[in-house]
Amino acid sequence: MDWRDAAAGSDFRPTAMGGAGGAERERRETEYAKLPLIPSYFEIERNGFVDGVNFASSICRCLVETNRGLEVYRRGGRKFAIFTLVPLGCFPSARAFVLQQNKTDDCFEELNELLKLHNLILPKMLKQLQKELKGFMYTLFDLYKVVDQRVNNPSKYGFEVSKMACCGTGPFRGINSCGGRREVKDYQLCQNPKDYVFFDSSHPSESPYKQSAELLWHGDPDVTGPHSLKSFFELSG
Q: What span, in angstroms and rounded, lies between the C-alpha atoms of 194 and 29?
C-alpha cells in the first residue's frame, strides 16, 4: 500500500506542515497518524496536494508574503500546522559567532529578538486568515519555546549538553563539518547523541524532534493551540 491508497482509505484530508529542520518531526507525526510517510513537496506531481504534503523548510510556500495567496489552500488544503521560528541565536553556530566577536558563550540575542518579533505577529496573521479563508483551520506550535526550554534547562528534559553540538568542529562544534564532506573536513562526533540538544551546528538531535512531535500531536496547551494535530485527524470536513 502506498501513501495514496492509505489516504484514500481513511478520513485523511489535505494537511500541510512546515518548518525549518522539520523532516524528522514530520516523520514522527505521520507515524502517530498511522499513515505512510507522504512525499515531500518536490517529490509529488502537480496535483499531489489533494492527498496532503510534508514541507521541510518550506513554510514560505504556505504563507507567502505576496498577494499570490495560499498555494496549499488554493489546491485544497484546509488544516495547517504552523510553527514559530526557533531561537537560532542559541544554536551552536550562533554561539560560535558570538564567541568570535565578543569572547563570550552567550546566545546571539540580537537575532533572537528579531525572531521573537516574527513570532509575536504570527498568531494575529493566522486569526485574520481564519476570518478571510473559508474552512481554514490551524494549530500554532510554539517551537521557539520548546527549543528555548531545552537549551536553558537541558537536564529537565533529559539532556546533558545544550551549548555544544554532537557533531562538528570548532567552538561549540559550531562549524558544520559533520561527515567531512564540506570544505572543512575535520569533525568530532559525540558518543551519545541523545545527551545533546543539538546534533550539529544548526539542527537539533532526534530526541528534541521526538519530544516536539509528541507535544504537537497531543496538543499540550502550553505550546500548542487552538487545536492538537491529533484532532485534525478526528475532525471531519
A: 20
Q: What angle do CA 58, 63, 66 make, to 5 degrees?
A: 115
Distance CA 165, CA 82 (A): 26
State how far the Cα of 171 lies from the Cα of 165, in Å rounded to an integer: 10
| pLDDT of 226 higher than 50 | yes
Show the cell assigned to 52. 496532503
- Separation between Cα atoms, residue 205 and residue 190, nearest integer Å: 12
Helix (H, G, I), strand (E, B) or coil at 28: helix
- As a whole number of Å, the end-to-end CA separation of the chain is 25
- Residue 176 CA to residue 164 CA, distance in Å, equals 12
Tens of pLDDT, residue by residue over 71-104, are 788 888 888 999 999 999 999 999 999 999 999 9
Question: Could you report the per-residue pLDDT of 133-179, keeping only the tens digit for each?
Answer: 999 999 999 999 999 999 999 999 999 999 999 999 999 999 999 99
CB atoms within 10 A of CB 67: 5
Q: Smallest Cα–Cα separation from 149: which of 67, 95, 192, 90? A: 90
Nearest-angstrom CA–CA distance, 45 and 12: 19
Kindly state the cell numbers that stand for 11: 478520513
- Whole-angstrom distance, CA of residue 221 vs CA of residue 237: 23
Q: Do 143 and 84 touch, CB atoms closer than 8 A?
A: yes
